[in-house]
Amino acid sequence: MDQDTVAIDENGMSEVFTDIALANLYNELKALHDMTTFGLSHTQKTDSPMPLKAQIRICTFTTDMFKTNAFTSFVGPVTMATRYAELGATKNVMKLVELSNATFGKLSKRMLIEYYGMKRSTKTCNDARYDNYNFKIKSSRLWGMKFKWEHIMPTYSVDYLLLLALYPKRAKVFLLKKSALIDIHNEFDNAFNQGPNGNQGLWFCNTEKRLSPHLIEVIGTDLDTAIKKSQLAYDKYKKTVS
């Protein structure tokens, strides 16, 4: 039988100790008494020291409860780190997976700005500038088995969205013309609203079929070609709705 050692005070409150803490407690108490019942003194650091006595006894607490069907059959939620690990994520990818949402977003922006040779913007409505275009950078880790970019404000003064998707083996980057997103959003009755009436901006997944012609993957550092493809896709779309 597996056992943990627990100290119980006179009020019936228990505390599970680590091996080191337990050993220290055991040695201290053994010197005071015969390990059955003893008094433990503690002098408070005041002008008039007042002794505080507690009755503590050492007992064993079985861990058989962890062998119950209720525990062994329990399947908890799959964490993002677990999902990536099961998919064979690389060491570098796991470093990004383990970051908080805020830190992941900030680091992703710095990475993409450096990688594509962009100029960092000093404005809050956009993140970077490249070849006279303004960009907003958004990043996503896996949402289930897809990616979702969120909190995209229609008021952003940007020409393009640069979208990072963190796959288990690599990162992919997509370009989306903001005009295409807004036009399709309006065409389908505010299709991408996030929150009540879109008060949190817009959001969408990489699996959104209405946007798929406009999600242009950026190959290597060739952002120029991606911009041209994005404009061509938008021009084609405008002809179909005009």
pLDDT averaged over residues: 81
CATH architecture descriptor text of the largest domain: 3-Layer(aba) Sandwich
User: Radius of gyration, Cα only, in angstroms?
Assistant: 29 Å
Task: Give the fraction of residues assigned to helices.
Answer: 25-40%
Structural class: alpha+beta
The count of β-strands is 13
Can you tell me the residue ranges where pLDDT is under 50 for at least 5 consecutive residues?
A: 1-19, 33-61
Strand proportion: 25-35%
Q: What is the fold's blueprint, element by element?
A:
Elements: E1 3-8, E2 14-16, H1 19-32, E3 38-43, E4 51-62, H2 69-72, H3 80-86, H4 91-97, H5 101-115, E5 119-120, E6 128-130, E7 133-140, E8 142-143, E9 146-152, E10 160-166, E11 171-177, H6 178-187, E12 202-205, E13 216-217, H7 223-241
Parallel strand pairs: 7-10
Antiparallel strand pairs: 1-2, 1-4, 3-4, 5-6, 6-7, 8-9, 9-12, 10-11, 11-13
Provide an overview of this structure:
The chain has helices at 19-32, 69-72, 80-86, 91-97, 101-115, 178-187, 223-241; strands spanning 3-8, 14-16, 38-43, 51-62, 119-120, 128-130, 133-140, 142-143, 146-152, 160-166, 171-177, 202-205, 216-217. By secondary structure, it is α+β, with helices and mostly antiparallel strands. The protein has 2 domains: 3-71, no CATH class; 80-241, PvuII Endonuclease, Chain A. A 6-stranded mixed β-sheet has the order 5-6-7-10-11-13. Strands 2-1-4-3 form a 4-stranded antiparallel β-sheet, with helices on one face. A 3-stranded antiparallel β-sheet has the order 8-9-12, with no helix packed on it. Strand 5 and strand 6 (128-130) form a beta hairpin. The longest helix has 19 residues, at 223-241. The protein starts with a strand and ends with a helix. The model is unreliable at 1-19 and 33-61 (pLDDT under 50).
